[in-house]
Specification:
The complex is a heterodimer of chains A (121) and B (186). Chain A contains four helices and six strands. Chain A is of the alpha+beta class. By secondary structure, chain B is an alpha/beta fold. Chain B is globular. The chains are: A alpha+beta (121), B alpha/beta (186). The site of magnesium ion has 5 residues of chain B, from helix 1.
Chain lengths: 121, 186
Amino acid sequence: MTLETWDGDDESAAGRFVPLYVLVNGRTAPRDSTLDLATQVVALPVDTRRLEPEYVEIVHRCASWISVAEIGAYLHLPLAITKVMVDVLVEQGYLRVGIPAQQKIFDLHLLDSVLAGLERL
Amino acid sequence: MDRTSVKIVVAGGFGTGKTTLVASVSEIPPLTTEEILTEASVGVDDLTGVEGKSTTTVALDFGRITISPDVVLYLFGTPGQDRFWFMWDELAQGAVGAIVLVDTRRLDASFPAVDYFERRGIPFVTAVNRFFGECAYTEEEIRGALELDPRTPLVWCDARDRPSSKLALITLVRHAMAKLTATAPA
Ligand SMILES: Nc1nc2c(ncn2[C@@H]2O[C@H](COP(=O)(O)OP(=O)(O)OP(=O)(O)O)[C@@H](O)[C@H]2O)c(=O)[nH]1
Ligand SMILES: [Mg+2]
C-alpha cells in the first residue's frame, strides 16, 4: 500500500491563514486575550443596566458556568469576537473566569478524575 | 467553587467520523462555533490592510461531558475542510491529547493529523473507524502506513457507538497519564 506523505509544509495555502484581527471597543483580538475557547466564565451579581445590549446578552448566557466556545455558538458570534467581549466583561467585573485548560494539564489528579468520569458514562 | 475546563481534540481527515464521535458521547447535541481567519500576509499589526484581504470562516464542532460539579470536559472536532493549522494550535494548546480517527478506505487522509500530534509530542490514540464492518488491513499494516510509534495506542471503533467512543476516550486519558508519569521528574 502506498501513502502520499505530508512534507510538513505549513506554508500551504490553508496553513497561511491566521485569525482575523478584530477591534472591539478599542481592544484587539487575538493578541490581548488570554482566554482559551474552552475557558468557562460565570456572571457575577452585578447590575448590567449600563451595558450595551450585545454585552447584556452574553452576561445573561452566563447565569451558570459556560465556556467561551458555547457563548460563541449560542450567540452566533465568531470566536475572536466572543473572546474580546468576554475579556471586556471580565475586566469590568461582570464575569468571573474559571481555570483554563492549559494551566492544569500536568495534573495527574485531574486526569484521574476525568478517567473516573468517563468510566461512569 | 472554581470551574476547571479540560479539552480533548478529535482529529482525522475529512469525513472520518469526528462529529459523529463527539455526538455519540456528548451530553448536549454538538454545537458549532466559527472562527474568521485571514491570510497571514496581511500582517497583524496592519489594521488598515485587513480590508479587502481574503478571509475564510472555519467551523468547529464541539460537545461537552460534565465530569464532576467542578470539572467539564470539552471535545473539539478539528475543521475537516482543510489544514487550518492555526485552529489546530489553538485546539491542541492545553489539551489532554487527541483522538485521531482513521477511515481504512482512506488511510492517507489521517496522516497529517498523526504527523501533527507526533511532531509536537501531544499524546494521541488512533481510532480506526471501520465504517462497514470490514477492514482490509491488519493493525500492523495500519501502523506501518501511518508510521505510528509502537507506543501509540490503536483502537478499533464505530464512531456512532457510545461505548466504542467512550473506550477511545478512556484509552487516550490512560495513555496521557502514562506519558505524564514516564516524563515526570523523579
Ligand atoms: N458506517 C459508519 N458510518 C459512520 C461512522 N462514523 C461516521 N459515519 C458516517 O460518516 C459520515 C461522516 O461522518 P462525520 O462525523 O460527519 O465526519 P467528520 O469527520 O465530522 O466530517 P467533516 O467534519 O466533514 O470532516 C456521516 O454520514 C456519518 O454518519 C461509523 O463508524 N460507521
Ligand atoms: Mg465534522
